[in-house]
Amino acid sequence: MILLNIQDYILQNVDAYGYLGLFAICFLAATILPFSSDFLFAALIIMPQFDPWTCTFVATLGNWAGGMTNYFLGKLGNIEWIEKYLKIKEEKIIKMQTWIQGKGGALLAFFSFAPFVGDVMAVALGYMRANVYTVIVSMLIGKFSRYVVVMYAVKYGIHLFNS
Fold first, then answer.
1. Axis-axis angle for helices 132-162, 118-127 (nearest 10)
2. Which residue, among 79, 75, 74, 44, has the nearest Cα to 59 in the 3D structure?
3. Could you tell me which residue, 26 or 100, shows the higher pLDDT?
């Protein structure tokens, strides 16, 4: 209930927070907040005072920074912190590690934008000490691709409704 109230407040005041608010929400959504940043992102890109490409870059950087935070928390290897702050159980991390090892390792950071498994994937990659440079690049490309797709979907959807 509290989370819904926070989301409602943010969406009602989205223009007041602007790009900085978008960065913060995208960062938090990739770490500790259990909701998608897509709603705020979509709300900003349809407002005429916000540039869609600037929103895309800001959202990408915020979400990527949150994902990399998860990676480094995983790399610290402190399961108590991960369970307490990220609400990810050790069993999930181990299960994700097993899956990652057979599928391409650090390159899978590309898919860290995926709902429900993306955060666990980033933590697991850190926990298994996956190559940080590959994770950085792969995660950045994945998160950027996600926001580009959402941007065009929103813009195309608006165009369809205005036709």
1. 170
2. 44
3. 26
* Nearest to 29, CA basis, from 5, 58, 59, 53: 59
Distance (Å, whole) CA 150 – CA 137 = 20
Confidence of residue 161 (pLDDT cuts 50, 70, 90): low
Where do the domains of the chain lie?
A: 2-162
Distances (CA, A) of 30 to 12, 137, 156, 162: 22, 17, 26, 33
pLDDT band at 163 (very low <50, low <70, confident <90, very high): low
pLDDT, one tens digit per residue, over 70-82 is 999 889 887 888 8
* pLDDT attached to residue 135: 95
State the average pLDDT for the chain.
84
Type of residue at 48: P
